[in-house]
Amino acid sequence: MYKVLLVDDERIILEGISRIINWEDLGTTLIGTARNGLEAYDFIHKQKPDIVICDIKMPGMNGLQLVELMAKEHPSIKFIILSGFNDFNYAKKAMEFGVKQYLLKPCNETSIADALTKVIVELEREAKKEQFLLETKNRLDQVQPYVKKQLLKEFISSKPDSNRGIQFYEKLLRVNFQEEFIRLIIFRIEGEYHYEHMFVIENLGEDLFSQSILSTSIGEYVLFLVNKCEFTNLQTKIEQLRDHFYDIYEMDMTVAISEVDCITQVRRLYLEALECLNHRFYLGEGSIITKSDIYQEDQINGYEYDGQSLCLFIKSGNLEKVESELTCFFHDLTQSRLSISLVRSYVMQIFLVMIQNADSKSMQRYMRKMSSLIDMDTIQQMKEFFVSTAKEITQVHYDRHKSNHSAIIQKMIDLVEENLGNADLSLKWVANKVFMNADYLGKLFKQETGQKFSNYVTEVRINKAIEQIQSMDDVKVFTIAEMIGFGDNPQYFSQVFKKFTGYSPSEYKKVN
């Protein structure tokens, strides 16, 4: 039912119209009456009628003044004007404020009913129009995110044809591209991902990047087109997004950020960001990469490494040197900024050289692992795989050398035991006996036993001296010194003994 207010300063007219009109049959209900414009104005604000049947000439506020006010404050209210004056100026003035039904007094039931019917038709038509616009807006709001996603994809796949075309999209989507101030950001999830992960990134980004214009996903990438802002602030927000995403899924992301340009250059910015993203091979997963992070034409060409020094360290079982050599190799390779395909080829070449130092069975096993090395996404992954394999091969050589070294060390220990009283006993003397280089033998002895050879000999001699002191009733320093290789220098023996035990030979006998 449409609500009707009846306004007239003549009581008889109010009562007459109220009684003669069958309001319900017309789909209306009379909710009240007023004697002048001021009463009607207050009533309208409180009761919100749909239709007002109003006289023109009234005290306080006339009908036309009321119509003018309502046209501004409640334009949806429809008026039917009643007037006893056959004056076109009144009708003209009323029509200026949207009044379409103008009845001259006296008017009968039929003319009022016809006017109400026409007004109701107009209200229903406007209601349908409003409903249609509301439904259209709701549908547009629902599809707008998908339209925006598709629009960014189209911008990337083909350069926008003109500013006019961009302005059309701005009006359609109710956005402002601010074409001179945009960046493109690409997020790449590291590891296996699902559509859910990309959806979460888009939603986190929409909330975090208040200046976000468009976003979409293309393949394994999530893209954001954002208005230019201070770079440090943008980087902080990107790090917040990555941290939040990691807290949810424990998955990392690599991010590429383009330079600043206008909307017509989106495709170029996309290709630029992809180029940055490709350098994750060098810079590693989880990086935030910009154009300033990648090398241009000043690449180091002609980088060469044959792996021979690496093979020598592997064969010698020197794990420390192997790790240092590989660190230098991959560092230099990273700094070279060769093409990724060339780097892969280089790494495979050196890997083949390296595994030739393994036994035939192990070499076949490493050959089967080469496919995984080729498929690795970053140079850091390749380095970790390379170092792990190098350690395995080096350890085999180390264990083999250690077995050989142990036999030599045992021979040295036997020689010390057998020649403890020989004043000439030294590293050089022992080296001549086993036909080896004295310096190498000294390093080997320390590596195997943890102490220098000279310290070991002195320790064995002092322990032997202690045995002799404990077995003597009267300590004979000269005899003991000669017995354990100090020759005719008992004073030096006493000094060495006191340095090791804290006592002279005589004092040691007394306290032990």
Backbone shape: rod-shaped
Helix run count: 22
So, CATH architecture of the largest domain?
2-Layer Sandwich
Strand runs, count: 10
Helix/sheet category:
alpha/beta
The mean pLDDT is 85
Low-pLDDT stretches are: 296-300
Q: N-to-C terminal Cα separation, in Å?
A: 121 Å
The CATH class designation of the largest domain is Alpha Beta
CATH superfamily of the largest domain: Reverse transcriptase/Diguanylate cyclase domain
Q: Trace the largest sheet across and list its strands.
A: 2-1-3-4-5
Give the arrangement of secondary structure elements:
Elements: E1 2-7, H1 11-20, E2 28-34, H2 37-47, E3 51-55, H3 63-73, E4 78-83, H4 88-96, E5 101-104, H5 109-157, H6 163-173, E6 182-189, H7 195-208, E7 212-218, E8 221-227, H8 231-249, E9 253-257, H9 266-278, H10 280-283, E10 288-289, H11 308-316, H12 319-336, H13 340-355, H14 360-368, H15 370-374, H16 379-418, H17 427-434, H18 438-449, H19 453-471, H20 477-483, H21 490-501, H22 505-511
Parallel strand pairs: 1-2, 1-3, 3-4, 4-5, 9-10
Antiparallel strand pairs: 6-8, 6-9, 7-8
